[in-house]
Amino acid sequence: MEENNKFKIVKKILVDFIKQRKTDKLALSIFADFAYTAVPFTYDKKSIIKILSHINVGVAGQRKTALYEALFLSSKLFKDSQLKEKIAVLLTDGKDNANSVPLDVAIKQAKNNKIKVYTIGIGSERDFNAEILREIAQETGAEFFSANSIQGIKDIYARINRLEKSKININKYEKKTYYFHYPLGLALIFLFLYFWQRNTWILNK
């Protein structure tokens, strides 16, 4: 599959996901050589989808993959959060090559903010670093998955939802969603990273 088509498919999966999260608060960020927030946290799903539709290859650079930096900066968004349950799902088919933030620093930031980071490597394991993704997941109390098809990705997200739903009723929660993409070598690779926080003290009343 051509990388541009792969990118379009992942964007479609994200759009479908956003549409299902009717009561969630989301944000949209991208990264390549650097990371930035394209849409601040909002309940306006239409605006997020519209901006996402205009995101093209190379919008945040085309030379490096700042995977650890993206995880680090995104984790910092939870610094002042008082919510008890914070979940992240990281989807990537690439490896960090920016060296802007050390892996241990990025993991520490996530752990300090009590974020569970589920990681998903897609495509060939030659493209992504399964060992690193597994380490991120295990260090934060989550799980690592791999998939080599679109259906496989969907199945993994369904499983993660079941794992988390088995703990508490999540009719009310706040979700923060980030979509990042970046090139590795000559190929476009992408990362889908989303966070959600559950207001457990409300749910447990």
From TrEMBL:
<dbReference type="InterPro" id="IPR036465">
    <property type="entry name" value="vWFA_dom_sf"/>
</dbReference>
<dbReference type="Pfam" id="PF00092">
    <property type="entry name" value="VWA"/>
</dbReference>
<keyword id="KW-0812">Transmembrane</keyword>
<keyword id="KW-1133">Transmembrane helix</keyword>
<dbReference type="InterPro" id="IPR002035">
    <property type="entry name" value="VWF_A"/>
</dbReference>
<keyword id="KW-0472">Membrane</keyword>
<feature type="transmembrane region" description="Helical">
    <location>
        <begin position="178"/>
        <end position="196"/>
    </location>
</feature>
<protein>
    <submittedName>
        <fullName>von Willebrand factor type A domain-containingprotein</fullName>
    </submittedName>
</protein>
<feature type="domain" description="VWFA">
    <location>
        <begin position="1"/>
        <end position="160"/>
    </location>
</feature>
